[in-house]
Each structure stands twice: as structure tokens, then as C-alpha cells.
Amino acid sequence: MTHHLKNYRAGHKKQSGVTLMGLLVVSALLIFFALLGMKIVPPYMEFLSVQKVLKSMQQEPLDTMSTSDIRKSFDKRASVAYISVIKGADLSVEKSTAGTVITVDYQVIEPIAGNLSVLIDFSARSDSK
Q1: Which among 12, 31, 83, 117 would be 20 to 30 A from 103, CA to CA?
Q2: DSSP SS3 for 57
Q3: Distance from C-alpha of 122 to C-alpha of 5, rounded to nearest angstrom
């Protein structure tokens, strides 16, 4: 009977697959990157909204508007676009003979877990392509 078992085992390949430890490591990495993505994507989406508002403001006659009017216009558009990270007071308005350019630079700090955080720097201009 032992001869029959040896022949049975010899015909099969060694089992292969993921070990429990490998599964745990891969799962932990997937969870970490999913958490990171869930924390980083919303600030980037808001930044895209800021860029869109600044680009749409270029359609207005900014050269004839005062700086406070430009900031008020941004605040109105930002409330419609659900932008909460910056206000009109954070804008830099540069008027020149070539036209008016609105710029904003800001940072977002997103806590990940415990004392681990991500710092993201954003810079947007109204005349960027």
C-alpha cells in the first residue's frame, strides 16, 4: 500500500499559491494605498475646481475691475463650486499692460494615520493653459 501512495504523490506537482503571510502583506499594502488615494484625491479635485474658476474669470473684463471686485467675484464662484480651501483674500492679482493675471498658492495637509500626514503644494494661475 505504501508503494501506491508514493506513485500517487509523485504524479502531482508541488502545491503553489499565496501563503497567509503573503496575503496579509499584500492586503496591508492595498489598504494603505487605498487610504492614501482616498485622502489625496479630494484636494486634487478641489484644486481642479480652483483652476476652472480662475480660468472662467479670465472671460470677465478683469482690467476694468478693482482688486476687491475680482476677489468678490472669486468668492461667489467658489461658493458655487464648493471651494472651501481658499478665499478671495488669498488671491494675488497682478495688473499689467498685458492684462490681469490672478494667481494663488496654497498648501493642504492631509492626515493619513496617527502622526503621518501628507503635505500637498498647489499653485494656480488664471492664464495657464
Answers
A1: 117
A2: helix
A3: 68
Q: What is the DSSP letter of 129?
A: -
CA distances in angstroms from 96 to 64, 81, 101, listed in the order given = 12, 28, 8
The cell numbers describing 58, all together, are: 479670465
Given this model, what pLDDT does residue 56 score?
92
Give the helix/strand (H/E) hosting 44. helix 20-57
Mean pLDDT by 10 residues, the chain (129 residues): 58 72 93 92 96 92 90 94 94 89 95 91 86
Q: Is 122 exposed, middle or buried (0-12, 13-18, 19+ CB in 10 A)?
A: middle
Among candidate residues 104, 110, 129, 126, the one with its CA nearest the CA of residue 55: 126
Please list the residues that pair with 120 across neighbouring strands. Answer: 108
Which amino acid is residue 84, in one-letter code? S
How many CB atoms are located within 10 Å of the residue 92 CB? 11
Cβ-based neighbours of 18, under 8 Å, separated by 6 or more: 26
Q: CB–CB of 76/92 below 8 Å?
A: no
Amino acid (1-letter code) at residue 45 = M
What type of residue sits at position 65?
M
